[in-house]
Design brief:
The chain has 14 helices and 5 strands. It is mostly helical. The strands form 2 sheets. It has a 3-stranded mixed sheet, with helices on both faces. Strands 1-2 form a two-stranded antiparallel ribbon. Strand 3, helix 13 and strand 4 form a beta-alpha-beta unit. The longest helix is centred in the first third of the chain and has 20 residues.
Length: about 270
């Protein structure tokens, strides 16, 4: 094996991330973002409105012109509450993995706007959270355990691991933060969430085989082909109940099963027996 090939294979090992680990990381990151907005919600009147300690007219004089913030479009308490709610809602979409990339972009924009509105309230953990959210925009964090995955009914198979320029940049950025950034308690908490992205594939495979059984592996859900809502719900259930081996079929494909579906007005579940 030549040196170039050897280095390439080693880089694949280092910079490939398991998509299931990225999904778990997405969930924890979304919770951190929600907590960041919720923990400040009661401070809106005192610190984020024109009636508080830092009105917009004074903020413009103390920050660089390169800084921007959506929170500067209004100085009212109600207007700020709306912006906070948008941030919380975007984090909830990220948590569920619905329109994941768009939700991540909105989360980053709202975090940046929040932090630039009152820099005196920004801690090192906020800087890390903002940086991490930026890099997540370039990672497939919605490939597993997400609404995006559940509602994607194509036959395309997803790999366990993924490597791209995004994963390489993310890993290098996180490594530099871990080495050089100031570590207070909150920063360490976010960094430990970050470590979830490096859970290796064999851990997920081990948990899958330990939790799986012939009862689960033999399940087949037959739904009404004419009910588009039913189809979406079935796929959502399979994803969020973590039942990837469950087979989903149209009841109309089997006359006997379809007769049962019409008789009982219900999906038909087949077990391993």
């Amino acid at each position: 094996m030549n040196l170039g090939r050897y280095i390439y294979q080693k880089l694949l090992i280092i910079f490939k991330l398991d998509l299931r680990s990225l999904a778990l990381f997405r969930i924890c990151l979304a919770l951190f973002i929600m907590a960041s907005f919720l923990s400040r919600f009661h401070l809106i009147a005192d610190y984020y409105s024109d009636g508080g300690s830092l009105p917009r007219s004074e903020l413009i004089n103390v920050i660089s012109s390169e800084y921007w913030s959506l929170n500067l479009i209004t100085g009212s308490v109600f207007g700020q509450q709306i912006l906070f709610i948008i941030g919380i809602f975007a984090a909830a979409l990220l948590l569920m993995g619905y329109r994941t990339q768009l939700a991540t972009i909105i989360c980053w924009v709202m975090l940046l706007s929040l932090h630039n509105r009152n820099p005196s309230l920004v801690a090192s953990s906020d800087d890390i959270l903002r940086i991490v959210t930026f890099w997540v925009m370039f990672l497939p964090v919605g490939a597993y355990y997400s609404c995006d995955r559940a509602l994607n009914t194509s036959n395309k198979t997803f790999p366990e691991k993924f490597i791209s320029g995004g994963t390489i940049g993310f890993i290098l950025q996180m490594f530099s933060i871990w080495l050089f950034y100031f570590h207070d308690a909150d920063s360490l908490a976010i960094l430990l969430v970050i470590l979830l992205t490096f859970i290796p594939s064999f851990v997920w495979n081990f948990l899958f085989h330990k939790s799986y059984s012939k009862e689960i592996s033999g399940l087949v859900i037959n739904y009404d082909r004419d009910c588009g809502f039913c189809k979406k719900v079935v796929y959502l259930l399979r994803t969020f109940l973590i039942l990837p081996g469950v087979i989903i079929r149209e009841a109309q494909a089997n006359p006997s099963i379809y007769a049962d579906l019409e008789k009982y007005n219900s999906w038909v579940i087949e077990d391993y027996q």
